[in-house]
Amino acid sequence: MTTLLHPKTVLAIKDLQLAAKTVADGLLSGMHASRMKGAGLEFSQYRSYQPSDDLRWLDWKMYARSDRYYIRQSEIETSIDIQLIIDASNSMLHEDQGITKIDYARYLAAAIGYLSHQQGDATGLSVMQSAQVFSLAARRETQHMARFYYQLEQIQPGGNFQHPAALKQLFTGPHKRQLFVFVSDFYEQQSEIMQLMDTLSAMQHQVLAFHLVGENERQGSFKGYQAVEDLETGEILQLDGAIDATAYAQLWARFTARLQQHLTEKGILYQQMSVQSPLDIALRDFLLQYNKIRR
Predict the structure, then answer these.
(1) Residues of the chain scoring pLDDT < 50
(2) 154 to each of 92, 173, 195, 202, how far by Cα in Å?
(3) Which secondary-structure segment (H or E) carries 206?
(4) DSSP 8-state assignment for residue 58
(5) Which of 1, 11, 71 is nearest to 31 (CA)?
(6) Which residues contact 44 (CB under 8 A, 6 or more apart)?
(7) Whole-model pTM?
(8) 3-state DSSP helix/strand/coil percent for the chain, to nearest 5?
(9) What integer pLDDT is reported at residue 5 of this predicted model?
């Protein structure tokens, strides 16, 4: 059984890579023996050498016996590119019991990136923030992962994500299977995040959505507040009297049900995560989707 790590415990580790390793290693040790194989570690079969193949995978013993070049096929040939897409709009500054959505997203993405790198997959990062969108193409090198963690640390939420065209580079890369992992609270102005996800799914990519929520927003806990501010638009809403908890719960359930239904219809895996939930749980859900793709 995995040792569940409360987010505050993980966020107390200021070194992002160390925090990611702590979460990932804790999960894998809790699972006892992972079924995931490291890239290139498990021999599968031989096939004839092709000019584009890496010479490191040539089997020289087979060449000595047959005078022909063969490649040892392995898990490396089933590797995938994993692109993490982080919502850095202003609403991700929402705080619940000392934990902001953006901090939870930052550490969750770091743990997923660490794990995918350990498995030999290329890992990339895109940050959705107004018209200024940062994107780091997926790569496997260790030096690249240092840039990955650095860019995660630099995320400063602000504004709102305006249009999926800002991430057009996601559609112009080499045509190969990819896993896009969205981490967002899914507050939108004009369905801009959904449009982006729908487009990627229609292109036959695998898409996984982590919906981050605060327990206080899920429960409508506004006791003691006279007004609340929409972090995306800056609009102030006056709270006249007590919040109708039943009506709020119904509206929240309707919002999340519509979101989940839409994503499911598009073949997108949806997982709602409270920022108070152990990071191990979110990482386990990522592993389940990851293993489906590698089969």
Answers:
(1) 1-2, 32-43, 75-77
(2) 14, 25, 26, 31
(3) strand 206-213
(4) B
(5) 1
(6) 72, 73, 74, 75
(7) 0.78
(8) 45, 20, 35
(9) 72
